[in-house]
Fold this sequence. Notes:
By secondary structure, the chain is an alpha+beta fold. The protein has eight helices and twelve strands. Mean pLDDT is 77; it is low at 251-262 and 301-327.
Amino acid sequence: MKHSFLNRLLGKPAPLPPPAFPRQYEAPPRSMYDRISEKRLAQEAAQRLLDRAKPRGNFCPQSVSVEDVWLRLPGHSLDQRLPVQDIPRHANALSHDSRLMAADGSRRLLRRIEIDTIPLPSTEPLTRAIELLRATLTQCPLFDRVADWTQVEVHLFPPSHVDPLVWFETVVSVWPQALLPGGGFRIAGQAPGPWLAELLSSNLSMPNHLCLSIDSWATLPANAHAADPAPLGEVVSLVSLKRDARTDTPNTAPEQTFNQQVQDLSLCGQVGTVAAEWTRTALGCLAARASPGHAQWVLDLTDSDSSGGCIIAEPHAAPTAPTGSPT
Length: 327
């Protein structure tokens, strides 16, 4: 007070109060869902840039050609061709795992893909999918037969009980650098039929498309939700497609009807609906290649209960390698 009164007598101005500094804004903590959303937005932005760089082709809106097929079933890797009458013999022996129990307390029956380097398969969906993916990348001969990876787009059909974005990031992180596709990777969130219809409706596309479907129901979540007592299974399918060029000339090649019922459940056990449809498609392709004239399979995925489709006779010479080998 004394100093304040003396200052006024002497005509000195009162000291100014110290400046008030604004409190620094602190952002709220970010959750796992925030980070996933940011990654998803970044992925979508990157995909839009990639789509702009894609060549615009003049493709047929009705059909695609199947260039190559590889199917990994429990006990067998099927490649090149497979006569219809030989399909049933590829059913594999059943196994069980004390970690996967049925509701009545008994051990679940399983049809598993055996991997020599993994004596105890994981029962966690993502980990098991990675085990199957790594085995596929090192053992599948189809990858070596791709003529030009710069003209390929890879479509990923996620495994059951695995987040699609997590699967996308996982596949991209382990995919060999020498096999990187020029069209990049794309998550396919649809069943094969709607997915194919969407692909055929666009001319903004790479000419070649590699469809990778990996699925395992020999996992804890699938075991908990599976009501059917049929064996829980696993399957890996790779189907290489080529967009057909648009033409005004009708196809005059002789056609044959092909609607062989394929009981994939006895071959791979219970798997997801999308994986089961790709299994039926791959089996249909392999059976078509073994038909007279080395026929080509033309996809028709409108009937999910069969491998229905049309065989165009002798479009090109197909390989005549062995039908399959035990694994």
